[in-house]
Amino acid sequence: MGVAAKVGTYAAAGLAALAATKSLDQNKIAQYLHTATVKPVWGDVKFGADGEWAEPRFVTVQYQKITGKTLDQFSDPWKIVILDPPQYSSGKVIYPYAEALK
Asked: Which contiguous run of DSSP H or E holds residue 37?
């Protein structure tokens, strides 16, 4: 999720910058990104002077409702439950995990 969220955030930021600046000029896009707050589905993100997130975010997740043995279900966002930080929580931890299999 962390990697996917970060990549998705940069994609959302790029699209927002293109829409806002109506330009492909890198300087205009950079200026926009250094001043705007991007609003992807996993929470607002603002970029710092170095281009990284102004407020780092570590997200803890648990995959739930996993059935069978196929890998494709791990890319299903409906099976990813955000546990922490609380302001982005989308569910509760299932513990012990064997309970999730019932």
From this structure: strand 37-38
User: Euclidean distance between the first and final Cα of the chain, in Å?
Assistant: 24
Exposure b/e, 17-48, CB count within 10 A at least 16 = b = beeebeeeeeeebeebbeebebebebbebebe
| Domain residue limits, the chain | 2-46, 60-101
Q: How confident is the model at residue 1 (pLDDT cuts 50, 70, 90)?
A: very low
State whether the Cα torsion 75-81-84-86 is positive or negative.
Answer: positive
pLDDT digits (tens, 9 = 90+) for 7-45: 677 788 888 889 999 999 999 998 998 889 988 766 788
